[in-house]
Design goal:
alpha/beta; Rossmann fold; 11 helices; about 35% helix
């Protein structure tokens, strides 16, 4: 028969076992619940999800345009529009000069062709310059000297214009301006957007003058002359049609020194459709900005935000 002392020890042991078991049953009820305040100041239980790790929504073209900076300079040769993207790094940037064709002046081309939007869509680190050009055969070329244009922009912005790599792009009758610039050593690349109306011997001479010169030629209405030109340049990389928006220009075209694109997009859609111009611009640069995966193409409702409306340069 157990002694009183043994009974006390047995009872104590039984008490401890029952107490521990009871504590284990209560652990889940004591687990803390994290709470936070919602926008109305009410406490809500925290949802454990990957929300904080989800990537931000893709940037839009309008946002890219708004991040950039636009100047409209008044000069003795007419207005000059200048645009720099957000994230612009002048130490690594190139300068791209776009010259419009007939039936439009630069102010109208800037607005109606949505040039800031198209430049933004290219997502490259560049300073974009759009000077005045002749709007018809009776008008004279506005800028006989590319160097003078770059110096004028530099003075108007009170900032250095990058000159390590200068690209000239001309649509249609802009060839009248671009031909006058071919002797200027600052030019690295010439882009003819359906602009090779005759005078093909001068482009052939220019491309042969240096293995550092690069030519991208888009022929649509100008096929009579572009076919002749590139038949004389055997190392031309030829595309029989404009690539699709999904495919873009192949890497081989982006690396080639001479590229010839046989376009079926139409003479004006090449510079108004929001596909051809940004696609070619992307192929020009080795310095893409972070948002270089944007889709190409402008919708009929594309508008540029008021934040880039024409302004005079800052004093």
């Amino acid at each position: 028969m157990p002694t009183p002392c043994g009974l006390r020890r047995h009872a104590a042991s039984l008490y401890i076992l029952l107490h521990v078991a009871a504590c284990k049953d209560k652990v889940p009820d004591r687990a803390p619940r994290l709470r936070h305040l919602n926008g109305d100041g009410e406490q809500t239980a925290t949802a454990f999800s990957a929300t904080s790790h989800e990537p931000p929504p893709p940037v839009t073209l309008s946002e890219l345009v708004a991040r950039g900076q636009h100047w409209r300079l008044e000069t003795k040769h007419g207005p000059v529009h200048v645009w720099a993207p957000g994230g612009y790094d002048p130490n690594r940037a190139e300068t791209i000069v776009y010259v419009h064709g007939y039936y439009v002046h630069v102010d109208d081309a800037w607005t109606n062709y949505h040039l800031a939007t198209q430049f933004a869509s290219s997502a490259i680190n560049a300073l974009f310059i759009a000077p005045e050009g002749p709007a018809g055969p009776a008008e004279k070329v506005s800028w006989d000297s590319l160097d003078e244009l770059l110096d004028t922009v530099q003075a108007g912005l009170n900032a250095e214009v990058p000159r390590k790599r200068v690209v000239t792009i001309g649509h249609s009758a802009a060839f009248r301006t671009l031909l006058g610039w071919l002797d200027e050593p600052v030019i690295d690349t010439v882009v003819l957007v359906d602009a090779a109306y005759g005078e093909i011997d001068q482009y052939k001479k220019w491309i042969d003058a240096s293995d550092q010169h690069r030519l991208i030629d888009i022929g649509d209405d100008t096929r009579e002359w572009t076919d002749q030109l590139h038949a004389q340049i055997p190392d031309t990389y030829v595309l029989d049609e404009f690539p699709s928006v999904e495919d873009g220009l192949p890497r081989e075209a982006a690396r080639a020194r001479v590229v010839y694109i046989k376009s079926n997009l139409g003479h004006f859609p090449l510079v108004t459709g929001g596909v051809a111009l940004p696609m070619v611009l992307r192929a020009l640069s080795s310095e893409p900005l972070p948002d270089d995966a944007l889709p190409l193409g402008l919708t009929p409702t594309t508008e540029e935000p008021d934040t880039i409306a024409s302004t005079e340069p800052d004093e």
